[in-house]
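Appendix B, Record 12. Input sequence as logged:
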Amino acid sequence: MGRLIDIAWPQLNVKVVAELNDERNPELCEEFWSQLPFKVTQAHPVVSGASMYAWTPVVSSAPVHHRQLITECPIGRLRYSQSTGNKMSVQYGKGTEPLAQPVLGQVLPEFCHLLPAVGKAVWNNLFFEKDVIFLEVTPHEGQGHPGRPAVPENLPAVAKKLLDEADRIQLVEPDEIRALRLGEVVDAGTYGQYFSAWDFANGMLRDYVMYTIYPILTLAGKLEPKQLSQVLNELDVPYSDYLSVVGFKKLEAFAAEVRGAVANAESKEEIQQILRAFLKYGNRLCAWSYQMFPWYLGMFYNRSKDGQERPGRWIPE
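Logged structural output:
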């Protein structure tokens, strides 16, 4: 039997118990377990159907042995996507995206009936209401969790700075996200409108952090430090430069520090520490950008479904 965890949505007064997939994905589950407890914003996918996901404060590169198609996941399945932001997903209904993701565990059967109501509330919140719903994940009582590991004393200075900033914005919207969504970045957008810049920034931040920096981390153990530094310099600058234009000055400054620290690193381990810290910070920006993006504009681009007056929102039962 795998270790048990509690998954709670305090604002919705719901808590469930789940079993980790320790037998088939032991390394992944151990990395996840080691970072408990945590509290993060709860989001919902906009393309893959009835599940919820959250960017965790974990940066996992553990080997994965057991995956499952989203379309085949039962209610209560826990998935963990390392390559799309280190997100934990909870399935509460039918999945629509035929992609295979690592299996993290399963909500116990006696709690699965609670999930659809949570999922619908999370979807309405992300899509339209735009409050912040938090997710809390903790070891279940009696599981003998040792506590989160201490930050290594020999951590590179830039990594420590990035981890501190990631912790600071874990539960608080970053200033850069707020300024962009309120139109306070005066040079972002043509002829006075700024939605285009907001849209570009949301997509570019996702591609930068999840689909560029994370793959570079996976290469950090394979390439020599100088080679890795060259790859980072080539791929990083186009992203960090543009994101600076739309207000992410702090991100640009951190990116420059990261490139410099990687160039001067003496070992692959030091590079991995720096990149993991950068990813933890970047994932928090992605989580907030996703949470605050105006997905409700999708109501203007809808397909009528089940007689809904405003497609995209759930009909209250």
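The first strand starts at residue 4 and ends at 9.
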